[in-house]
Amino acid sequence: MKTRIRILAKLLALLVFCSSIATADPVLEWNAIMVITISGQNPFAQARFAAITQLAVFEAVNSITKEYQTYLGIIAAPKGASPEAAAIAAAHAVLREYFPGNAAILDAARANSLAALPDGQAKNDGIVVGLASAALLIALRANDGSTPPQFYLPTSSAPGQWQLTPSCPPAGGVFLHWRNVTPFGIRSSQQFRSDPPPTLTSHRYARSYNEVKEVGDAGSAQRPPHQSDVARFFAVVSAVAAWNPAVNQVASAKGKSLSKNARAFALLNMAMSDALVSVMETKYHYNLWRPETAIRAGDTDGNRNTEPLGSFVPFITTPCFPSYPSGHASASYAARKIAEEIFGEAGHSITLSNPLVPGVILQYDSFGQLTTDIDDARVYGGIHFRFDQTAGAQQGMQVGEYVHKHNLRRTCGDAETRRDMK
């Protein structure tokens, strides 16, 4: 009975959430459904599932509209097939494959979406194309390195070396294997490895150390209420859960075509997933300690400007892997780069909220404002140094730029690609 109640509650939430999405565009509708469906996963799995789903949608739609270079290049769509039906079928099939426990919810959403389309051969052909696209993407990612999990146990207790924090399982640092996940749009996880972090004895390290020590402690009086709100918000809202709704709102307001929106969400989620693969490779390459460890041991780092605070406890829970660079920053700046390339930097109306953080409503009119809040959230949350955020931002921008430049290009040349901005 409790399981059925939870399913019905989730379906109701899904239908209410999607009622605000322009149902004339099933790409937007099923992007919202995707975000809700994957919400119980960790941020890394969310990014992978989102990329697979949105690439399947793109490939299904693009096999019919043929506006962009394909990702797979092997789906032959019947003439006149419905791209709307293809998008619905592709998203549904991917999500149902990975989340069979949500079958009832997803089947109901599929029936509701397809009911808005006229019956006939075009609809039936579109469904076939969507199913084919989903099957191909699922098969492509079957052995992509996302399983089995691997863990890391520190081999040194030297100053600066990452150590287990209270959130860690006995097995050690989590998501060690994510550095080996096959990227979607970049060449390898090492392609955009960040430069080394600042040395412990540097002025830059001391500045970042003292900032997070002052504003990131659970009992800090120097953290303004807004910064507490954003820290709590982005502690539970991943990059995928923030950027998909943000871009969905902007795409809905812009009124771009089904095909353009399919491409936008494919690139957005490819970039976020690849950024998280990249950041985990960098994190475990440098193995830098977290502020929680560093600030309690400030008298061991050789820097006379870093006084220790043995009672330091971060405002939010420290994730169980190395600090440098910030994963939320890397994924978010990759998303920002894609979003700005397609929709422009500013002039938007974005509102973010989440039931896990009641009473917190964040509003933005540019994508840059969103990344600023995310950067501050990690520092004021006490889990990252400011230079973690800076390095994550640079890495994310590089990943986003590469993904946008080398994937899903216009079939008609760069001139039309530039007109996407207009």
Describe this structure in words.
The chain has two domains: 139 residues, Up-down Bundle (Vanadium-containing Chloroperoxidase, domain 1); 242 residues, Vanadium-containing Chloroperoxidase, domain 2 (Orthogonal Bundle), CATH 1.10.606. It is 56% helix and 3% strand. The chain has 15 helices and two strands. Strands 1-2 form a two-stranded antiparallel ribbon. The protein starts with a helix and ends with a helix.
Radius of gyration, in Å, reads: 22 Å
Per the CATH scheme, the topology name of the largest domain is Vanadium-containing Chloroperoxidase, domain 2
Please name the CATH architecture of the largest domain: Orthogonal Bundle
Helical residue percent band: 55-70%
CATH class of the largest domain: Mainly Alpha
Largest sheet: 2 strands, antiparallel
Shape: elongated
Count of structural domains? 2
Mean pLDDT: 93
Itemize the secondary structure elements and their pairings.
Elements: H1 2-18, H2 26-37, H3 43-65, H4 83-98, H5 103-115, H6 121-140, H7 203-215, H8 225-236, H9 239-254, H10 258-286, H11 291-296, H12 327-343, E1 346-352, E2 362-366, H13 367-380, H14 386-406, H15 414-419
Antiparallel strand pairs: 1-2
